[in-house]
Amino acid sequence: MTSNLELSFQNTAGKTVRITLQEPKQDLTPENVQNAMNLILSKNIFSSTGGDLVKALGARIVVRDVIEVIPSA
Fold this sequence. Notes:
With 73 residues, this protein is an alpha+beta fold. Helices cover 19% and strands 45% of the residues.
């Protein structure tokens, strides 16, 4: 089973931008994630085709379970 942390932001064009992090720590708290998102915004670390990220919209952990029917060689 794999998991990803998806961080959603709004850019200056009003579009939603998602940043996906693979295999986040199991003990993340909402406060940890909010602090990281605030840091990303305050340091202007990322930009997008629609401009800078200007607002944190939310975050979620997506868990995916893959079952191979025929294993790859």
